[in-house]
Amino acid sequence: MSGGTVMEQMGSLPHDLSKLFGQVNNSEADIKRKEDSIMELGNKLAANKQTHELRMMIENTRPFLLTLGKAKAAKLVRDLVDLCLMIEGQDGDIKVELCKECILWAEQQNRIFLRQTLQARLIRLYNDLDRYNLALTLANELVRELKKVDDKDLLIEVELEESKAFYHLGNIGRARSSLTGARTTANAVYVRPQMQAALDVQAGILHAADKRDFKTAYSYFYEAFEAYDSTNQKKLALQALKYMLLCKVMLDLPEEAISLTQGKVARNYTNSEAVQAMKAIANASKDRSLKDFNSTFGHYRTELQMDPVIKKHFYELSERMLEKELCRLIEPYSCVQIDHIAKIIQLDRIMVEKKLAQMILDQKFHGSLYQQEGMLIVYSPEKPDTTYETALNSIHAFGGVLDALYQRASVLR
To answer: Which pTM value belongs to this model?
Structure first.
């Protein structure tokens, strides 16, 4: 392609692409230069948030795409669509419309692989826009089709997105089933580190949501964090690190969470809003301060309240913090008025009374409620009675001695 690159020839006029790429040229070097020029211009338009120009460029590169192999064309189109979809502040309907336009063109040109690739991207877009039912409808059709053609790489991606949609709709069982399908398929082929990390993140999320197994969830998040960090995917690595810290807090190990934020693992992310938010939550848990916990959730709204995973655990976190606060307040007393506790904690008396009753039943502390007097009696923790265990150990030891004596006596005979 003489006369310089596309950028030099056209500047910011992507509608001239149809003229530049209308002529067929089978030179590999020339085709490669054209591909690089298209992506160069696409990145520039995306950086300048020129959505309309980028969409026109995608449309006008189609004659050139017909000269490429199906795999190359699919990659180029998807990269351009990704650039357009990643522009912030764009209306979700416009993004969906772009994907559907490209899917329709792929169908008209009988580009099956390209159409399937774009449909997979549309499913992810539906999930990003919280349109989970639409994502599931399309994923269900595409999974059946991909299983027939045995396209394992794309099948893994679609089943992962299907699992995410089920999770956000509250169907944990189906979410786990879809993830199992994706992981089973992944075991049969080579999977890119980034995709393996995405599978690990989803596995960690489901372990935390389904079985409340935060220890296993932490190990999955840690694997994902290492993979993202090693491939310089800083944003995704930060998300995995945030969920690692969440697991430590949910395991009632706030000191370990704080230590993690100050250690070697998180040194490149220490100043991020996400890490600062989780560190503040860990400090509130350590200090058993419900006030600090609530103020942290209010201050770091984007990182905490807007995160769907943390949001799902907010109620449990709040209940735990309330219990910690109540335990801290009643520690100095053997007898205290419930009204006094409610006043300090700034909560309704009836709510505090119900929570204290529940904590007594759950053996979070030893005490009794006297509702007529409005009093809480707190008992000192009982020392465990080791008499039975000691006696049992003695009997076992005595039995061992008798067995040894019997064996020696048998030898003497």
So the answer is: 0.79
